[in-house]
């Protein structure tokens, strides 16, 4: 009787790696349906996923098929662990980095859109009509607008469309963007975010229904995919907000911030737990708000809502008075805010005040969800400068 043959597993040597499949494009395309159903072999799956990182048309088709499969197999409730999706994604990316990475400045928007979508897929049909009050700050007081959960998503869809238009994507408003703006004096053809929202609400079924979720999520996917293919250099592209413009990198942070804020509004309306963004993303949002404070302060001075700057002339680029903004907790840090003009240089030698705020509290202030008088802030120094900066932070908010 012959002896049993030895196995490579008995030798202690590593097992031989299977040779990767080399398949033609037409074959890989034909496997997309099986891949979406998780019916491919391990080698076929690897070949298809390798191809998806290189072929845009197949990647779009794979995304559509995966979405169709998701309709056939509704996901389980996320109430068990709302952070599960984030942990799984982080684990996957740690093991296998994306072939086409998302730029760092677009990652917060990608994450916040995914978190909001996870919340939306977990709510019932009736909850889409739950009342939500959009809140922001104008002049010296709060402003609000009543809508529904679906109306909030329609608002995000219409304003996110500003980024999409700058990237050459289809505008979700369509012909509605050609309407003349309100009588407040804004130029026709360049509506503000609030005017775009009102135009979308007028031109579509109102109140909106849960059907708005699909175009909003599709648009967010297209935006992230487009900036990823364009690379980090696209961050300098200007995005118009009607009365002002932001670089694409800052605009993506702005959209991430608003996505998180309105997700919190929805979560409150449907009694759903919702956590702040990841610390590294929250820090970027806070940094954007801190960088915009000097401009907001200057606009309030021009409107007569804040005390004028001292009479002494501060040349552009010269040191002027500054306020130290200390943000505590997750995503925090310190920023020197120039007080005399946006063009002046903030210098610690000319620091006249120091304000300390919790990171989430500062974001609620910048979102218009808490008044400057109610913001829990530690304050030392020039009281007038502190008041002006807190009101400038609240004035960053908008519908």
From TrEMBL:
<feature type="domain" description="Mycothiol-dependent maleylpyruvate isomerase metal-binding">
    <location>
        <begin position="110"/>
        <end position="267"/>
    </location>
</feature>
<dbReference type="Pfam" id="PF13490">
    <property type="entry name" value="zf-HC2"/>
</dbReference>
<dbReference type="InterPro" id="IPR034660">
    <property type="entry name" value="DinB/YfiT-like"/>
</dbReference>
<dbReference type="Pfam" id="PF11716">
    <property type="entry name" value="MDMPI_N"/>
</dbReference>
<dbReference type="InterPro" id="IPR027383">
    <property type="entry name" value="Znf_put"/>
</dbReference>
<dbReference type="InterPro" id="IPR024344">
    <property type="entry name" value="MDMPI_metal-binding"/>
</dbReference>
<dbReference type="InterPro" id="IPR041916">
    <property type="entry name" value="Anti_sigma_zinc_sf"/>
</dbReference>
<keyword id="KW-0805">Transcription regulation</keyword>
<keyword id="KW-0804">Transcription</keyword>
<protein>
    <submittedName>
        <fullName>Zf-HC2 domain-containing protein</fullName>
    </submittedName>
</protein>
<feature type="domain" description="Putative zinc-finger">
    <location>
        <begin position="30"/>
        <end position="59"/>
    </location>
</feature>
